[in-house]
């Protein structure tokens, strides 16, 4: 199956993401979900995810809102987002990590063309929180197999959840918990620009009015390990420059926060 699907996905990309003749976009998309757990980075990332992201996020594209809802339901299900949860160093991480990207793409589409009920939106939030509580494989780039990048992908989902029309002020605290659960489990300093992806999510919280930088101060002040301290420091610095470039007045409040995280 993968050889046939790979050739089909290659043609889709080469054609500018046109739906294959004689096939429905929904059928191709559902089948493509099955390659997101592949250790082959070209099939998984450059073909499978690339096609899904293009079709899902385009409100004028080939997938109707109901079809995107079905892709979201499958991505956040036990067979994708939770498959192999708790494993460390196995290839199952790719399926979970790329399920997160499908979730982020579907949430982005919901922001352009609202179709999720509040109950559905909150179910997604809680599924992601459950995932974060159980994910142990936080590798960024895996030699010969490409990006896993769970922390960065969770940050992408958090950003889209914050932007959601169902998001409320208290939800940002729940989403900060998602990030804390992963950061507390990190065993090495960020190697794949995770701090930049996290800073986008945090800046979105500030821009939404759901959190202030002063409120974030308590979140930054609770590293449970040396690795977490380093990663929080990197994130605080990235957030500072992101907010400063957007002329956010609260940006200067990050100066003492990152100073407290700096040892030298």
Count of individual domains: 1
Alpha carbon gyration radius: 19 Å
Order of helices and strands: HHHHHHEEHHHHHH
Helix/strand-derived class?
mainly alpha
User: Which residue ranges are poorly predicted, with pLDDT under 50 across at least 5 consecutive positions?
Assistant: none
The coarse overall form would be globular
Rounded mean pLDDT score: 96
Going across the biggest sheet, name each strand in turn.
1-2
Largest sheet: 2 strands, antiparallel
Taken as a percent bin, the fraction of beta residues is under 5%
Distance between the termini: 55 Å
Number of helices: 12
Percent of residues in helices? 55-70%
Let me know the number of strands: 2
What does this structure look like?
A two-stranded antiparallel ribbon has the order 1-2. Helix 1 (2-14) crosses helix 3 and helix 11 (226-245) packs antiparallel against helix 12. By secondary structure, the chain is an all-alpha fold. The protein has one domain. The protein is globular. It contains twelve helices and two strands, in the order ααααααββαααααα.
Q: What features would you highlight for this structure?
A:
264 residues; mainly alpha; 12 helices; 2% strand
